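Rotation project, supervised by the postdoc (A.L.). Task for the rotation student: set up a whole-complex structure prediction and record inputs and outputs verbatim in this book. Inputs entered:
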Amino acid sequence: MLNSLSYGLLLFMLSSGLTLIFSMMGVLNFAHASFYMLGAYFAYQTSTYLGFWPALIVAPAAVAFLGALTERYGLRTVHKFGHVAELLFTFGLAYIIEEFVHLLWGRAPVEYRIPPILDFSAFSIYTTQYPAYRVFMMLVSVAMLAALYLALTRTRIGLIIQASLTHPDMVEALGHNVPRVFMTVFAGGAALAGLAGVIGGNAFVTEPGMAASVGTIVFVVVVFGGMGSLAGAFVASLIIGAVQTFSVAFDYSLASILTGMGVQLDPESAWYELWKVTIAQAAPVLPYVLMVLMLIVRPKGLMGTREG
Amino acid sequence: MLEVKDLHAYYGKSHILHGVHLSVRQGEIVSLLGRNGVGRSTTIKAIMGQVQSSGSVQFKGEELMGKKAYMVARKGLGYVPENRDIFPSLTVRQNLLLGQKGRKESGRWSMEDMFNIFPRLRERAEAPAGVMSGGEQQMLTLCRTLMGDPDLVMIDEPTEGLAPKIVDQVANLFDEISKRGISILLVEQKLTIALRISQRVYVMGHGQIVFEGSPDDLRANEAVRKEWLEV
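Outputs recorded:
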């Protein structure tokens, strides 16, 4: 339960940035998870020199800077050639970042560890020890999201961002520097992904494949929650987080359920192999099944506002 | 104050404006008339820097051609679009705040002025702007642009679809704007309000200016009205 919550919150840190960038620019940033990976690697590098706590600030800031450069000198130039060009641009960028990580840090996972001060168990439930670092992850996520919410709803720049999400031309005609707002949002989204990398990289594994593995899940979250909806992304993050965490623990298969209902199954029955697959075995595919079902039943997602 | 010369504008490959000339003096109300699709809205958008264009747009002696829309706005040009681009999820007050260019109120208009001119906006101040009626949204769009303290406002079809009583309120606001020394370039299809409040009128046809004169000149010129205005 707590694991699913901390994982879901981490997913939301990623998907919120992606959602903001999507609703503003109308483009899915394929390199978003790469920023997450860079966050983890930067944090690893920083922590070998300065320790974990400075890395918590330095790594997201560095990722934000890269995000700003990407928007200013990359996307803004490509923008006039349309959405397909932008999409391909971010796609290519994701590969460049991955190869770059290979070159600098190698293909094997790096030794990015939880700081010793947080490496103890906070409490135990029945016989399970709950690691303090997971609690710390949740605290950071919640604090960050509260800050994001307040910034978007209570500050002037937040209001300008909200208005630019839907009416960029009008906001610009009122004298606001909308290109700079775009850059800020892109950098902010990248910083959120970077921070998620800092606190997620040592809880899981920091390796060159981490972008690809988390990236697809984040897209599932964004599609499931509804493109461009922050609230939808939040609910979807928690749901997908729970699905991924819980399903691993269930050892039931359709066969065992059918047998429980009194249906006799033997190795000669049709599709016997399929019935025997347990939920735990199917866990990796469940989020995608959910996404496909959502697209069939409600194409705009849980709380999406725009079609397609 | 505003001097537009030989303005051409394009949407992709289609050439919409073919050398538009017009001018607006300090404190003047000027109307740009014509049927739908002749390029009136495009003219304003080209002045604002929101469509691809060429030619010359001088404002207070400064060339604006090629400047980005937010720079044009900061020079003192206000734009009230036809489609009432309010920010629907923000409150009325927040919409007005975003009209201001800086953090503080400055210049000729305060939020209090707006609430006094349109008491309805005060009543709805904390409501999301998206739930207001079309007329209320039109007032809000106008007031939001005024909060940016423009020296000239370009207003696209402000009375489109409004009840007669609200049209009168809007006309009064135009008088008030003009009294404070602000120029107005009004795009209209209906002659009634335009002829009543304007000092000069232009008529557009096929992406060009086809008539220029006083409202009385236009009233007297039946040929122009028949060919370019009446349906």
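Student's summary: Chain A has a mean pLDDT of 85.
Supervisor addendum: The longest strand of chain A covers residues 121-125.
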